[in-house]
Design brief:
The chain is an alpha+beta fold. It has helices at about 35-40, 75-80, 85-95, 100-120, 155-160, 170-175, 185-200, 255-260, 280-285, 335-350, 365-370, 380-385, 395-400, 405-420, 435-440, 525-545; strands spanning about 1-5, 20-30, 50, 70, 130, 150, 155, 185, 205-210, 210-220, 220-230, 235-245, 290, 295-305, 310, 320, 355-360, 390, 470-485, 485-490, 495, 505-510. The radius of gyration is 24 Å and the shape is globular.
Length: about 550
């Protein structure tokens, strides 16, 4: 299926064969964050083709909240925040702690504010707004409790018209076959919808759906196009100026996951887009590209649902998680990537089962918070009918249910209850950071042991209530992810590199197709999508700066 400013096809026209390929200036493989880069290219007068493997645009970005971690950007200034890129540079240096990525971090910090300014000049991109999500290491030098994440505004469906049907549904909608509600696209779908409208309205943009990359075309050492399969037909498209690989990670490729990430169990529990099987990564490797951090992912805890599969989980407010030894191993409320990595490390390095692990709650916690829904709503019966949530009367029954030693589980609960009495989690520090506190009634009380009285808790730390009121409830937490993290190695212009450090002319990569500027950490909400669009943008700037193919 082909769409551009003048023509919306049903896909029945002849596809270009490999002898007479269509020619563009820029080809972008993938329609998630790369779609913003495609708009940047097309708005500069470059004939730009976007190839999307599926029948809808957006990839994993459409599943997301649409946040972008862009320090020093205009939305932060409009919100009255005293933030600049120098503070963020200090923060990145501190938390990433990897000198080999400093040039990538510098490029990212420069690109973010510039890109936001450019997008906000388009009629399609309403001003972005600041969302008060603390940096994930906000207590470290350069960190901030106010956060640096900006979000797109909702996009009324009527503004996008029939093109709204081309935007991938939310993960919730796709998972449970729901109808996306309301008259507007929200979160990541709003970002994608705005980028799609802007791209197609340039008059220089073409989108081809159901078109999967198979190989990169190389002539005289330079990438000059791509081979693909479009609606079942082999095709070739040529790129006069450059190819940008922005097709997500390899989270859905069992072989690669088992090879590089054994804790991920083949990616069966990923929350990444279903078509993300590493096509772009493999194509780059096939022509000699270097790779980095293939053992990494944006790991998240996944609460196993009544349908038997896990779903992204964050914001645990009570209860404890225990591993196969019946022991706590993590602050259950810490940022999702950190909690996910704790599960992964435990699974691969301790000899003790961590995925799945089990979440134990008691009636006191259920009375306050309910479960898997708003506190005022009762637990859905489907949780019990499916066995996704089990209810028992004693800790001995809990131990038998999850197959852990009762002595160890009893000791774990006794230790936890002692900590709850004091209000200080000496073992894992739950409730001490602004991130943790964000999930309670206020983000205003200070980190540390001196918590003010809570309106809905009799305990000094409202995130640390005792576990002592039968009956007990047991749920399952698996290791999920929102995409793999490692990929092709690039420079500060998003140019793909060989193992010897030389670049592959004509080839660029961004997002989860590329190894991240943030290394093994997740600095703040919106880092993955921010990296995707920032480095796609940097690729376009490099392409546009060259008047002749390089």
């Amino acid at each position: 299926m082909t769409l551009n400013d003048a023509h919306e096809s049903n896909g029945t026209e002849p596809a270009p064969d490999r002898e007479t390929p269509e020619v563009y200036d820029v080809i972008v493989v993938g329609s998630g964050g790369g779609l913003v880069g495609a708009y940047a290219a097309a708005s500069r007068g470059l004939r730009t083709l976007v190839l999307e493997k599926t029948d809808r645009v957006g990839g994993t970005v459409a599943y997301s909240g649409g946040g972008l971690w862009f320090p020093g950007s205009a939305p932060l200034r409009r919100a009255g925040l005293d933030d600049d890129t120098e503070n963020a540079r200090t923060y990145l240096r501190e938390v990433v702690d990897d000198r080999t990525r400093e040039h990538l971090q510098d490029a990212y910090l420069e690109a973010g504010p510039r890109l936001i300014d450019e997008l906000e000049r388009s009629k399609w991109f309403a001003p972005f707004v600041h969302g008060p999500v603390p940096d994930y290491f906000s207590w470290r030098p350069g960190g901030t409790t106010a956060g640096r994440t900006v979000f797109p505004q909702d996009l009324p469906v009527e503004e996008l018209g029939g093109r709204a049907d081309l935007v991938r549904d939310s993960l919730y909608t796709e998972r449970w076959w729901k109808t996306d509600p309301g008259p507007a696209l929200t979160g990541g779908r709003a970002l994608i919808g705005r980028a799609l409208g802007a791209f197609l309205d340039t008059g220089n943009g073409t989108l081809k759906l159901n078109t999967a990359l198979t190989e990169l075309v190389v002539e005289d050492g330079r990438v000059v196009g791509v081979d693909a399969v479009s609606d079942g037909t082999p095709v070739r498209y040529r790129a006069a100026r450059g190819v940008i690989l922005a097709a997500g990670g390899f989270e859905r490729d069992r072989e690669l996951r088992e090879k590089h990430q054994p804790a991920a169990h083949g990616g069966q529990w990923s929350n990444g887009a279903p078509a993300n099987t590493g096509d772009a990564l493999k194509a780059g490797i096939a022509i000699g590209a270097d790779t980095d951090l293939l053992d990494e992912a944006w790991y998240v805890p996944g609460l196993v649902q009544p349908d038997g599969l896990p779903f992204f989980h964050t914001g645990t407010r009570g209860g404890i998680w225990v591993n196969g030894a019946g022991e706590r191993f993590v602050n259950e409320t810490r940022p999702y990537d950190q909690a996910g990595h704790a599960i992964a490390r435990g699974e691969t390095s301790t000899g003790v089962r961590h995925t799945p692990c089990h979440w134990i709650l008691d009636q006191r916690q259920i009375d306050r918070d309910s479960f898997a829904g708003p506190p005022e709503e009762p637990i859905g019966q489907e949780w019990f009918d499916s066995g996704a949530l089990k209810k028992v009367d004693t800790l001995e029954e809990v131990a038998r249910l999850i197959d852990v030693p009762i002595e160890a589980l009893r000791a774990t609960v006794e230790r936890y209850n002692t900590l709850a009495q004091s209000g200080v989690d000496e073992d894992f520090h739950r409730g001490e950071t602004p991130w943790d506190q964000m999930f309670h009634y206020t983000i205003g009380f200070p980190a540390g042991p001196n918590y003010p009285a809570s309106p809905d808790s009799d305990w000094p730390n409202p995130m640390l209530q005792p576990l002592d009121t039968a009956p007990y409830y047991v749920a399952t937490i698996a290791l999920g992810d929102i995409g793999t993290k490692g990929g092709l190695k690039t420079d500060e212009h998003a140019r793909v590199l060989r193992p010897d450090g030389t670049r592959i002319p004509g080839l660029y990569a961004s997002g989860n197709t590329a190894a991240p500027m943030s290394g093994r950490v997740y600095p703040g909400a919106g880092t993955p999508i921010g990296s995707s669009i920032a480095f796609a943008y940097l690729a376009v700037l490099d392409i546009a700066a060259s008047q002749q193919p390089r």
